[in-house]
Known about the structure:
The complex is a heterodimer of chains A (441) and B (435).
Chain A: H1 15-27, H2 33-39, E1 54-55, E2 61-72, E3 78-85, E4 97-101, E5 105-112, E6 129-130, E7 133-134, E8 138-140, E9 143-146, E10 157-163, E11 168-173, H3 178-184, E12 187-193, E13 214-222, H4 224-232, E14 245-248, E15 274-276, E16 287-293, E17 299-303, E18 308-313, E19 316-317, E20 328-330, E21 333-335, E22 340-345, E23 376-377, E24 396-397, E25 404-410, E26 417-418, E27 421-422, E28 427-432
Parallel strand pairs in A: 1-4, 2-5, 4-12, 13-16, 15-28, 23-24
Antiparallel strand pairs in A: 2-3, 5-10, 6-7, 6-10, 8-9, 11-12, 13-14, 16-22, 17-21, 17-25, 18-19, 18-20, 18-22, 25-28, 26-27
Chain B: E1 7-8, H1 13-17, E2 49-50, E3 58-70, E4 78-80, E5 85-88, E6 99-106, H2 112-116, E7 128-132, E8 136-145, E9 159-161, E10 185-190, E11 196-201, H3 206-211, E12 215-221, E13 230-231, E14 239-240, E15 242-251, H4 253-260, E16 274-277, E17 310-313, E18 317-324, E19 330-334, E20 339-344, E21 347-348, E22 367-369, E23 371-374, E24 379-385, E25 393-399, E26 416-422
Parallel strand pairs in B: 2-7, 3-8, 7-12, 15-18, 17-26
Antiparallel strand pairs in B: 3-6, 4-5, 8-10, 9-11, 11-12, 13-14, 15-16, 18-24, 19-23, 19-25, 20-21, 20-22, 20-24, 25-26
Amino acid sequence: MQPTRKRYGLKLKGGWAVTVLLCALVLSCAPAQTSRVEAAGLAQATTPSSGLVCTTSPDASFTLTAETGYISTPDGNTIFMWSYSPDATSFQYPGPFLCVNQGDTVTVTLKNTLPEDVSIIFPGQQDVLANGIPSQPQYLNGELTSLTTVAGKNGGTVTYSFVAKEPGTYLYESGTDIEKQTQMGLFGGLVVRPSGHPNQAYANSGSKFNPSTEFTMLLSEIDPDLHQAIERGTRFDITTYHPRYWMINGRSFPDTIADNGAAWLPTQPYGALVHMQPKSASNPDPALVRYLNVGMRNHPFHPHGNNGRVIGRDGSALVGPIGEDLSYEKYLVLVGSSQTWDVTYDWTDTDLWQPNTNPIPVTIPSQQDLTFKDSATWYSGSPYLGIQDELPVGVTSYNECGEYYHVWHSHALNEAANYDTGFGGMFTLQRIDPPSPNTCP
Amino acid sequence: MTKPPTSRKKLTRRNFISLGGGMAALAGVNLLPAMAKVLANPAPVQAAIVAAPPMATSTNIHLVGTDGWIYLPGPSSIVGDTPPRTVYPDPLAPGGRTTYIFGFRNVTGLSSTAVNDQKGKAQAPAPLLYVDQEADVRITLTNLGLQVRPDLVDSHTIHWHGFRNAIPLFDGVPEMSIAVPIGRDFTYYYKPHDPGTYMYHCHFEDVEHVQMGMTGVVFVRPAMNTPTQKYVYNDASTAYDREFVIFLTELWASAHYDDAHIQVSDWSEYSPDFWLMNGRCFPDTLQPAGDPLTIPGQPVLQYQPISSLVKANAGERVLLRFVNLGYQQHAMTLDGLSMRIVGKDATLLKGLGTTNPQIRNGADVSYETNTVYIGPGESYDAIFTAPNVTTDTTYLLYNRKFMYLNNGGTGTGGQMTEVRISPAGTLSPQAAPNT
């Protein structure tokens, strides 16, 4: 049963258009991730259509601006956000994925345009300095005011620095008014690559991956009531926290499968489509998926299609004291609040089914005996990878070249929804192309 | 067949959102076509459990999807809000039962008349299935429709959760391939290469159909099994004598009531009232295993046939297959006994070997614990050795999240059962899981 769509609070019909309008009139949203990063004077390779978009810097020096903006949800809502943006002129959610190399001295300068103090903490990093002195919790009259040194409201600045000692996947997030500011969107991801091994997650060879298939699943939740309260300057009681939107890399499904930098999501530059090819002699290395949970809930994330191999957690490789492999496979990764998990994936055409020489030993019913849900499908019309076959008249296909699609989603299925509407939320797709050479665009 | 023109265009957000609800237009759907089928090698006629002989090369299973009614012990009533209405016990529930469900039934080997007769008689949880590594497994799903909701023409699917290197056509996600309309059959094909504990569920409008009860356990027996010794994986450290599936779900009474009474639910308000172990709440969990084709000693439990009572002789190795298909996380504690976690998510807990990186014969990463913390969609394989008792001794297995240890807010209930250990030689060998 499809529930009827209800409207709450500031939900607006045609939110897509409304967001674009707001951007055009108010926020001067830049059209794409690449241009924003270039504007900040940072090195940026061509943005891939899917996969991790790294923000890098020759001297591992970054400037982030805490500012306000709006994002849109697939059900037409528009939500007021705060976030760390990589330049002063545009807004993006979440903050950029900062990629550095092990041993780099990382410098992050925070500029604050918000009407209250803001800061950044770097969980998992050691000996973080703030303005050159050790970062310390802040107190006023004996009361804790911030977990670290702040950039003062309305224009303050602070500079953090640390040596990225250990490779891995990390969060960075606000350390001030934390339950509010992190929920408002002040967070991002940090990737530290092992010295001399850009195609490994860690120093051990078991963490090798195909650099063209590196992905993030940055998991977050949104309670729109909190955001509305902040926008209106009213109080919000965090004990009433009740998320209604669940996101990956700052988007909810189906926006998650749109390209990185999709023009109709001007403030949400990061997609979450997992686009890869089968494991083969010419594609021997797996994809790497870096999970990060910035929410206050644990999220049980289920990749269909295959188990993943957990090779690291919270910036530590799963390697024993004498180098033994301690990795394990999971078909569900329970990513706890603030945890990071590094998981490699491949998909293997195990049984090499072929329509003529090795057919799947089961009869597939005629199309009139099957349901094509909502008259749209990602199905190729054939069970065989690389083959497209007939689909019923009137069914819209999103299949381009006989590729396979699997869903990856939170298995707390109430989170696989946009508010009250299913087939959304913390949900994305894995796309497996036929082996090269193929006809895929 | 003439080749129909199909529209193949890239997804844009606008045309995605414009997709309406409801099914694909299917011209000329006739209700309930002939369902008699010739199964090459039908499994024994055992409605709750499919038992394949050791290392079957081919297994055929026939499931139906439909609706039904189950019994949950609880307070005199639970009143849902907005609007206030008595959501438990459901006033429409027949035969002393309380709660409306969607679910599956195993009808393998039944006549087509008998298959059709199971409409409106779904069980909770779905039938426990087990198959052998490398077998050709065919699971035919027949959608019988919903007895209580003839207006609701939902299709169903089977998603084998965790099946490795899956083919989308057999993965059961309707948007990624197809679903099975009312009155039709579809045969899913699997060749399982990896032993271990999995689960299966309908993926059609999953938030609803999973909560409504279309969930169960399937496990794959390893090639190393012999007629006299069972293993969880192809590894001697995983030998066991008896096995019990501990399948965990939650039930939100308002949503079940609303489905029976032609209302919709806002799933972001998910707030369960009951916490189930193998489809029952304590103390019903202790009742013996049944068969939905037979009225049991406690008649209201006819469609909740799986017992959670764990029984073993002193010295035996007992396997508990923990599976969670609720939306909450659970903390299953076994008081007074230590469990060894030998597998998770159908994977032996050994690191990759150094000689062949594809084989898990490296470092042992199994561990001892007395609490299994398990998220939705996870499975844990835990083995304990029954202590050397000389008289019958009882241990408790329960959810340490005490707020889930009640039935609709009353009593000690929910996800709890007993582990009863008898002196050596008391019980005869186990014939089937959970017996």
